[in-house]
Amino acid sequence: MSVRDILEGRLTEKEVELRGWLVTKRSSGGVQFLMIRDGTGRLQCTVHKDEVGEKIFQKTDKLTQESSLTLKGIVKVDKRAPDGYEVKVRDLQVIQLAAQDYPLSKKEHGIDFLMDWRHLWIRSSRQAAILKIRAEVIKACRDFLDEEDFTLTDSPIFTPSIVEGAATLFETPYFGDKAFLTQSGQLYVEATIAAFGKVYCFGPTFRAERSKTPRHLTEFWMVEPEMAFFSFEDNLRLQEEMVSYIVKKTLEKRSKDFEVLKRDIKPLKKVEPPFDRISYTEAIEILQKNGYSIEWGEDLGLPHERTISLKFEKPVFVHRYPARTRAFYMQPDPVDSKVALCADLMAPEGYGEIIGGSERIHDLKLLEQRIEEFGLPRKAYEWYLDLRRYGSVPHSGFGLGIERVVTWICKLKHIRETIPFPRTMTRIYP
Ligand code: NSS
């Protein structure tokens, strides 16, 4: 039996047993009002002195915030209760009486304080709503891909090779040698496409991000689909369908959590294919017209992405970035080899990049050349070159950052609240 069952009205006038934690307590005359959280919701439970007797009433009186308990009682419809239902308690067992000094009992705390107590802060209704939405986003990603006949093939965490640039690598000793924590599972899903056609990996990825920004973690979760025979254009179409599906499913399943967050969902309801597309060159022109002193060839930072994103109601693709600023594996545009067949998807409402994707180089010679130009250690990539020796095909894929998507969908100011235990340059505790 759960709070959810009670709030759905199935247990009215029935005797129930609830197990949970005490959120708040107040008393008025001979009645104690307990707000109980059980993981499925919160519910008011009342303890009447003249009904339960002195002993249970005393026990209730001593309860501290976050004490864990079991209670038995009868479900009542009561208009005065916050959710229209309450449990009239008959019996109550304390599992653990929480220490008096629960650190998060005050209403207002600074963010550093809350992050130090993250292991307790996740119990708050706002944090729980965000993490529920996160779970739904992950489920939607997986459901979408599974329904589209993708096979999940997990990529390793310990790797010998750089994917997204040497600057953000985490190195770790590995039995007298060294290994890197993966920056992306992409190279490995490029291998499994030859066995399964359409595949994805989903797991944690690591980047030694030295910048303190509201959208960078050092450990984040990425879903990375990779598709044999997919052109650059096919890749974009899949992305817009997948992102629209994620938003639709999350709105459908987690409407209560959006209410907790006071998230205006109107902008999210507009997210459906097709999304607009602008080239990197067009983006630079827009930025220059908006007063930015940015030149063709420079990378887009958050303020740039924000400006672009605010010009569109739906997510927008920025495509064909300068090849020399992008990763070694990207296919050059046959029309203009200065740019790569890649695109970043910018979320609306000022959020910026949530996906990075591209068509991959499938020609052995060109890939060898790029590995050399990028100064990458050829030996670590021999296996990757084999994929171009034995049945190479045009292929494309992308990586969607779960925390970036959740930040946008929940309309948060900072990415740190979108993962149970965030890791940043300045935080590895708790
Ligand atoms: O660097 S990406 O743009 N692209 C890749 O890693 C490709 N190898 C993916 C692929 O094609 N299979 O990162 C992809 C996404 C990016 O759009 C963000 O949403 C997210 O990963 N990302 C991050 N999220 C949080 N924190 C950090 N530091 C971060 N870096 C990337």
Outline the structure in words.
- By secondary structure, the protein is an alpha+beta fold.
- It folds into two domains: 94 residues, OB fold (Dihydrolipoamide Acetyltransferase, E2P); 301 residues, BirA Bifunctional Protein, domain 2, CATH 3.30.930.10.
- 32% of the residues lie in helices and 27% in strands.
- It has an eight-stranded mixed sheet with strand order 6-10-11-18-17-16-13-12, with helices on both faces. A five-stranded mixed barrel has the order 1-2-3-5-4.
- Strand 16 and strand 17 form a beta hairpin.
- The longest helix is centred in the N-terminal third of the chain and has 23 residues.
- The two termini are 32 Å apart.
- Bound molecules: 5'-O-[N-(L-asparaginyl)sulfamoyl]adenosine.
- 5'-O-[N-(L-asparaginyl)sulfamoyl]adenosine binds next to strand 11, strand 17, strand 18 and helix 15.
- 5'-O-[N-(L-asparaginyl)sulfamoyl]adenosine (NSS) binds next to strand 11, strand 17, strand 18 and helix 15.
Which ligands are bound?
A: 5'-O-[N-(L-asparaginyl)sulfamoyl]adenosine
User: Which quaternary structure do these chains form?
Assistant: single chain
Please describe the biggest sheet, giving its number of strands, its sense, and whether it closes into a barrel: 8 strands, mixed
Mean pLDDT: 96
Helix fraction? 25-40%
Tell me the structural class: alpha+beta
Shape: elongated
* Count of extended strands: 18
Radius of gyration: 26 Å
Q: CATH topology of the largest domain, which one?
A: BirA Bifunctional Protein, domain 2
CATH architectural group of the largest domain: 2-Layer Sandwich
**Beta-strand level of the residues, as a percent range?**
25-35%
The CATH H-level superfamily of the largest domain is Bira Bifunctional Protein, Domain 2
In the CATH scheme, the class of the largest domain would be: Alpha Beta
Number of helices: 15
